[in-house]
UniProtKB/TrEMBL annotation:
Lineage: Eukaryota, Metazoa, Chordata, Craniata, Vertebrata
Domain (Obg): residue spans on this chain: 69-223
Name of the protein described by the UniProt record: Mitochondrial ribosome-associated GTPase 2
Keywords noted in UniProt: GTP-binding, Membrane, Mitochondrion, Mitochondrion inner membrane, Nucleotide-binding, Ribosome biogenesis
Matching Gene3D superfamilies: GTP1/OBG domain (2.70.210.12), P-loop containing nucleotide triphosphate hydrolases (3.40.50.300)
Amino acid sequence: MVPVRLFSASSWTRLEGVMGAPSTWAGLPLGRLLPQQAPPRPLSTGCADCTKHQKPPGKKLLSEKKLKKHFVDHRRVLVRGGSGGSGMSCFHSEPRKEFGGPDGGDGGSGGHVVLRVDPKVKSLSSVLSHYQGFSGEDGGRKNCSGRGGAVLYIQVPMGTLVKEGSEIMADLSRPGDEYIAALGGAGGKGNRFFLANDNRAPVTCTPGELGQERVLHLELKTVAHAGMVGFPNAGKSSLLRAISNAKPAVASYPFTTLNPHVGIVHYAGHQQVAVADIPGIIRGAHQNRGLGLSFLRHIERCLFLLFVVDLSVPEPWTQFEHLKYELEKYKEGLSEKPHAIVANKIDLPQARAILPQLRAQLGQEVIALSALTGENLEQLLLHLKVLYDAYMEAELGKGCQPLRW
Ligand SMILES: Nc1nc2c(ncn2[C@@H]2O[C@H](COP(=O)(O)OP(=O)(O)OP(=O)(O)O)[C@@H](O)[C@H]2O)c(=O)[nH]1
Ligand SMILES: [Mg+2]
């Protein structure tokens, strides 16, 4: 199947801002927008006119370093369910009705605290360190039960792993997934509850229970269909920019990308493949060299991998071997995932010369392309679709619900 659009596709990137607004309107010089000599005003007219000449508001693109501050992939959270309301102790009172009997209502139960996946949330930065659920209301007279506490939802990004101690409690990897982080306490009983044949006028009522209290560790592991793995400067971010409209920073120095970015590639029939740009890996990353292990876990969740090799270096095939080695050292079998090898920077003259040698060394299909000029990007997009279709088929064959974007 042929992709609908090659260079433009809707996407989301981690907390990335909207492109900056143009500095002048419609290319007009500022002098033409503002009168040369403003006529004297008889009265102050506020800013209604001045605002016309102000720059239209627009969000600035966040730099990768600022983005790093916003991108949080670990959080320790103390969650406490809401307390139950207390039961009531009172007696029915009505004119000319003696001994009306106990009519104290039960307290409402406390609200749960629930973690819920919101696809719009991209990092754990919005998750606070402490949550207290809503308490239930106390019971009332005339057998009225107290209102139960509302559920408190904490929105988390897709791919959040919930751990208690070292035990994994939940893996929230699909939109709408929920996990009850803390149960609300049960409401207390009113004195009506204690009415019995041998006790016609109980005064006993019980207080509501406290909500459950837990300390949870939330860990974000990016979920995408394809993960781009490569050395720094291999051109991963440039490639993601070329195939989707995600806008990760591109620069000629290593470790430009500090957080994973996800872009969406659109195909015919509203099919969307999510591709993640993972920060560069170097030799010894599993020993925490370079950016180390902190982001290798983002690769774990990707369903298939795109190894991006830089054709401008003298022996590009060693890059592929080192990448595989690092992945294996991090987690056994990680490099065995379905993958494609992408050789970038084919536009450079030395790259064309070295390509046959790379193919011979690897003995596998290599997609040679240029993220800069757009040469041969179609082959990558077609291959991506083949990998995606194979995954969908396998999941549907197993009776599982495949990950759709
Ligand atoms: N000639 C040429 N240069 C490229 C190509 N793709 C990327 N580059 C350049 O290579 C440099 C690194 O590109 P990036 O996309 O930032 O590389 P990266 O793999 O994301 O790097 P890190 O974020 O540091 O891991 C930039 O100067 C790009 O302009 C290409 O196809 N041809
Ligand atoms: Mg990058």
